[in-house]
């Protein structure tokens, strides 16, 4: 065995020292790759700046002033989880500074106050949704307006028959004549009215918020105009249920405005 050489660890090969020219070339390549990566991701970094002024409908009770609301909201999603009709969603990156904050898309799913107790406010742990509101009439999510008066069926003296938003619409609404406590799919409720009044008929606040008035300018008894009153809370039910596309009535956000403290 003495004639067999013992195998030991091989000596490490010494790395060749790069020349100054090679070092400079390597640094240049690294800098180029970093620059390309920064240029590729720069648009994402600029999104909050570009979209910083986007204002959405906020959940009931949102603090007055968009900046105050965004500063107080921790994007926990508790309000989203307790909403019985799933009217509240969390904003994505393209909402800029409002990324992750809760909002309501009234055309897709309005806040119909199915919970009665303002569950989203009770679930908010920070007070971004004010805890001193006790009734839906005190809420100020936004204000409705007649955005397309010429397309409004009531102003044209026309009725409506069928599904308000079609069979594929996924929104829900509380129809008290069917179930006082549980919201029903809008796609399963057919209307048959001689004069379209869906926005007024389904308003959860009542005539103090939205009513039909005779349109004297048209000179016809059947022609009526939806008139928004001081009681409008901006829940968005009128916008959601409007059978015209796009909706004749729309809700303008109050920039997270609530009744002043």
Outline the fold blueprint.
Blueprint: H1 20-50, H2 66-72, H3 78-82, E1 88-90, E2 102-104, H4 119-123, E3 142-146, E4 160-163, E5 172-173, E6 184-185, E7 190-193, H5 198-201, E8 210-214, E9 224-228, H6 237-241, E10 249-253
Antiparallel strand pairs: 1-2, 3-10, 4-7, 5-6, 8-9
End-to-end gap:
95 Å
Number of contiguous helices: 6
Which word captures the global form?
elongated
| Gyration radius, rounded | 29 Å
Order of helices and strands: HHHEEHEEEEEHEEHE
Count of strand segments: 10
Residue stretches low in confidence (pLDDT < 50, at least 5 long) are: 256-261
Helix content: 10-25%
**Structural class assignment:** alpha+beta
Task: Provide the number of structural domains.
Answer: 1
What portion of the residues fall into strands of 2 or more residues? 5-15%
For the largest beta sheet, what order do the strands appear in spatially? 1-2
- Mean pLDDT, to the nearest integer, reads 85
Largest sheet: 2 strands, antiparallel
What does this structure look like?
It contains 6 helices and 10 strands. The chain has one domain (66-253). It has helices at residues 20-50, 66-72, 78-82, 119-123, 198-201, 237-241, and strands at 88-90, 102-104, 142-146, 160-163, 172-173, 184-185, 190-193, 210-214, 224-228, 249-253. The longest helix has 31 residues, at 20-50. Mean pLDDT is 85; it is low at 256-261. The radius of gyration is 29 Å and the shape is elongated.
């Amino acid at each position: 065995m003495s004639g067999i050489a013992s195998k030991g660890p091989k000596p490490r090969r010494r790395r060749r020292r790069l020349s100054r020219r090679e070092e400079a070339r390597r640094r240049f390549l690294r800098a180029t790759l970093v620059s390309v990566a920064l240029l590729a991701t720069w648009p994402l970094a600029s999104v909050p700046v570009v979209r910083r002024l986007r204002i959405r409908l906020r959940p009931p009770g949102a603090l007055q002033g968009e900046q105050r609301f965004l500063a107080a909201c921790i994007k926990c999603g508790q309000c989203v989880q307790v909403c019985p009709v799933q009217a509240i969603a969390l904003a994505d990156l393209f909402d800029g500074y409002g990324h992750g904050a809760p909002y309501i898309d009234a055309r897709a799913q309005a806040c119909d106050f199915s919970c009665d107790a303002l569950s989203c406010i009770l679930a908010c742990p920070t007070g971004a949704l004010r805890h001193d509101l006790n009734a839906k009439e005190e809420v100020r999510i936004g204000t409705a307006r007649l955005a397309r008066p010429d397309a409004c069926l009531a102003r044209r003296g026309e009725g409506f028959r069928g599904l308000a938003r079609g069979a594929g619409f996924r929104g829900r609404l509380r129809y008290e004549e069917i179930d006082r406590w549980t919201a029903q799919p809008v796609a399963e409720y057919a209307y048959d009215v001689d004069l379209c009044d869906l926005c007024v008929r389904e308003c959860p606040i009542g005539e103090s918020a939205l009513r039909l008035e005779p349109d004297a300018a048209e000179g016809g008894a059947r022609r009526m105009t939806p008139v928004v009153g001081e009681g409008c809370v901006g829940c968005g039910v009128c916008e959601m249920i409007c059978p015209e596309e796009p909706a004749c009535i729309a809700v303008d956000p109050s920039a997270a405005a609530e009744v002043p403290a």
